[in-house]
Design brief:
Layout lengths: L6 H29 L1 H17 L1 H17 L8 H27 L12 H6 L1 H19 L4 H17 L2 H9 L4 H32 L2 H11 L7 H44 L1 H20 L3 H21 L5 H24 L1 H7 L6 H7 L3 H16 L4 H23 L5 H26 L6 H22 L11 H18 L15 H11 L5
Helix pairs in contact: 1-2, 1-7, 1-13, 2-4, 2-9, 2-11, 2-12, 3-4, 3-6, 3-11, 3-13, 4-6, 4-11, 6-9, 7-9, 11-12, 11-18, 11-19, 12-16, 13-14, 13-17, 14-17, 14-20, 15-16, 17-19, 18-19, 20-21
Length: 536
């Protein structure tokens, strides 16, 4: 037997990721307009280091809770032991994040790493890294229990909060507080993460109130909470050991992955400053970190949504049917990555000047064009990590992360100090690092469940990308009043609908993937079934 592929959950989480990333680009554009390109570069340089410090709470603990609760089944109600286990684990994660931030700050004494300029900004982020484990725990609980809608809504609310806070009133307030652009960015992200936690907490309390229902059930729940904890101490500590074990691999993988990217940026800026001066170094770093990387990663919303949906589904399926049942899911992951990354890389390559111009950094177009062919390797990391974890091979994440970081940082150092490639040394380091890490993850996943590469899907993905690019090129050559530059969203929608329709007709995208679309899900599903020849 094979495990049903989570098309519905993937579409739901992908939609939430799409909204978040789209609003994130709006936030970045308005943020740099309000505070300047240099502030955007400083913020983007500090952000990986903040993620590095909060890896336990923002990645490791949510992943562990998702796997732990998913393996336990689809029970909606947490037991008394589970509640206490999650509370203790969350408090431990908060303490570890503070210790991790302190360790990152200690690295600022190494001049080569270039962390010194963002030292104060990292100290300013302490409230943010304390909030992140709370939100991570709530998301892990809900996704592990199969309650996917509320995390998706909360994620969208966080992105909306980010965009809403970049307004003249907020800018005046931040100037009154004498905060620089980097501190303003951290403050806005902290407020957005607080909004996410608030939405999750209110939603879970509402679910609990509805679930209790009658006074009899409410009394039973109170009696359960008031039961003595001492008799459950052994179970709680056993559960904590399980969670800490499940937390270790994704946390270390995130630490290694973020360490490479987090140390790469300040180290690159330090080396560029020594060779070309601070002004040129700041401009190149802003173009790379605040423009090229966000644009390249924007289409990753579908890959991240797929990864979020895969982990609980495959973990639960493996517990019931064994590892061999994961084979079809792995092949579907590869197909999905072809369908996503090939058209995305083609569009990014062709329209790099346009997209970079929207963020007031047209010079970043050349960087984006060179990095666009790497979309497949960048997008495949999250889904492959979920497959490997579901296989019980979490250690592979560590091997892949270590190899990727080693290749990334060594290439960066050699290309800038020996070959003097300038900003292209950054691109070379990114290319080698992401290729090595993704290749190792795929090798581990393939060794456990060998599958054939779906060349047919690759061909159809190329054809879909050609159609999307053709429509956008046609729109770009229309009169300005009707063209792509003045009306980008309608033309992007037309191009994506055309490419999606082609993939549905070619049976590469199943109709059920459209069901979670709000309001239009059912009609789109019926239309897709007709196009795919599945109409009864």
């Amino acid at each position: 037997m094979s495990i049903p592929f989570p098309f519905g959950k993937t579409s739901l989480f992908s939609l939430a990721e799409f909204v978040s990333r789209l609003l994130g680009l709006f936030f970045l554009a308005h943020f740099m307009k309000a505070f300047g390109l240099d502030a955007g570069g400083m913020f983007r340089t500090a952000l990986p280091l903040i993620i590095l410090a909060s890896a336990v709470g923002s990645v490791g603990l949510p992943t562990a809770l998702t796997r732990w609760l998913a393996a336990d089944g689809m029970k909606k109600q947490l037991s008394n032991q589970q509640r206490w286990t999650i509370v203790i684990a969350t408090l431990c994660a908060m303490m570890l994040t503070v210790l991790s931030l302190n360790a990152v700050l200690k690295l600022s004494v190494i001049a080569l790493l270039g962390i010194g300029p963002v030292d104060q900004l990292l100290r300013f982020s302490i409230p943010l890294i304390l909030i992140m484990p709370v939100g991570g725990s709530l998301r892990g609980i809900l996704i592990g229990r199969g309650q996917n809608t509320l995390p998706a809504i909360a994620q969208a609310c966080g992105a909306i909060t980010q965009v809403a806070l970049v307004n003249p009133t907020t800018v005046r307030f931040l100037e009154h507080m004498h905060w620089n652009g980097g501190e303003a960015g951290v403050a806005i992200v902290t407020a957005a993460e607080s909004a996410v936690v608030l939405v999750l907490a209110i939603g879970m309390m509402g679910q609990q109130y509805v679930r209790l229902g009658t006074n009899h059930k409410r009394k039973a729940a109170v009696d359960n909470r008031n039961s003595t904890i001492s008799t459950d101490t052994a179970s709680i500590w056993r559960n904590l050991r399980t969670i800490f074990r499940l937390t270790a691999s994704p946390t270390l993988q995130t630490l290694l992955e973020t360490l490479g990217f987090g140390l790469e940026l300040p180290m690159a800026e330090h080396l560029l400053t020594l060779q070309f001066g601070s002004a040129m170094a700041e401009q190149w770093m802003a173009e790379y970190a605040a423009v090229a990387i966000p644009l390249l990663h924007f289409p990753m919303f579908a890959a991240d949504g797929l990864a979020t949906a895969l982990l609980p589904t495959l973990t639960r399926g493996r517990a019931v049917e064994g590892s061999q049942a994961l084979g079809p899911s792995l092949q579907q992951v590869v197909r999905s990555m072809f369908i996503l990354s090939v058209p995305a890389s083609m569009v990014l390559f062709v329209f790099a000047p346009t997209f970079s111009g929207w963020l007031d950094a047209p010079q970043a177009a050349n960087l984006l064009r060179v990095m666009a062919p790497l979309a497949l390797f960048a997008y495949a990391q999250s889904p492959l990590s979920s497959v490997v974890q579901a296989q019980g091979r979490s250690r592979a994440l560590l091997y892949a992360g270590f190899a990727g970081d080693l290749s990334r940082l060594s290439t960066l150092f050699i290309s800038m100090t020996v070959w003097h490639l300038g900003v292209w040394g950054l691109v070379s380091a990114f290319a080698l690092g992401v290729s090595v890490e993704t290749g190792i993850l795929y090798l581990f996943a393939w060794r456990m469940t060998p599958v054939a590469i779906p060349w047919r899907s690759l061909g159809y993905a190329v054809l879909a990308g050609v159609q999307v690019c053709a429509i956008l090129i046609f729109a770009a050559h229309l009169p300005l009043a009707y063209g792509f530059l003045n009306h980008p969203l309608p033309w992007l929608a037309i191009a994506l609908i055309t490419g999606g329709t082609f993939l549905i007709i070619s049976k590469e995208v199943p109709p059920q993937a459209l069901l979670p679309v709000p309001v239009l899900g059912s009609p789109l599903n019926r239309i897709a079934k007709v196009l795919a020849g599945q109409d009864e």
